[in-house]
Amino acid sequence: MSPVLPNSPALKYLAGYPPALIQQVQGLIAEGRLAESLARRHGEPHEVRSDKALFDYCQSLKERHLRNAPPLDKVHYDAKLRVLQHALGTHTRAPKVQGSKLKMRREIRIASLFREAPANFLKMIVVHELAHLRELEHNRAFYQLCQHMEPDYAQLEFDLRLYLITLELAKT
Q1: Backbone angles phi, psi at 170, to 5 degrees
Q2: What is the signed CA dihedral for 7, 15, 133, 59, rounded to 10 degrees?
């Protein structure tokens, strides 16, 4: 495997991180140890393969951490999500008229790459999207809510970025 240059497309996931950290990642890539390191820490798979199982998984996390949040109408894996919107998950709200009332339909879509991803990464992305039920913006309160639902959220987000890099490098 050739060394990854600082402006390599594979490192786009680390934009905004300190240069010293990026150099450490480049070292792991050059030694061919990045994928192995991630597999050692996050190798456990999950059984959440179907859309129904994903909905149930989201509901259980929501009931445990966000009891008073609005209900979810739909949760599913989306094969086109990463390609079309450059996102790994989305939370959408759409108004729906029911008689004389206006109700909000809430839907979460998770990129289908998480069907095969380690369990920790699925939990991280679901926690992220569930946090949008209360906080629409990526602000301090949003990240505090993510940390409340998953105390290791920041590390999992970084490790997920490393996982995405390994997937990009595997394509080349």
Answers
A1: -70, -25
A2: 70
Residue 121 host element (H or E): helix 119-131
Q: pLDDT digits over 21-79, tens only? A: 999 999 999 999 999 999 999 989 999 999 999 999 999 999 999 999 989 999 999 99
pLDDT tops 60 at residue 86: yes
User: In terms of residues, how long is the chain?
Assistant: 172
Per the CB < 8 A criterion, the answer to whether 96 and 105 are in contact is yes
87 vs 164, more confident: 164
pTM, 2 dp: 0.87
Q: Which amino acid is at 61?
A: L
Ranges of H-type helices in 3-50: 19-30, 34-42
To the nearest 10°, the Cα dihedral for 70, 76, 79, 82? 20
Long-range contacts made by residues 155-158, C-beta under 8 angstroms, separation at least 24?
Answer: 156/120, 156/121, 156/123, 156/124, 157/124, 157/128, 158/17
Kindly report the average pLDDT of the chain as a whole number.
89
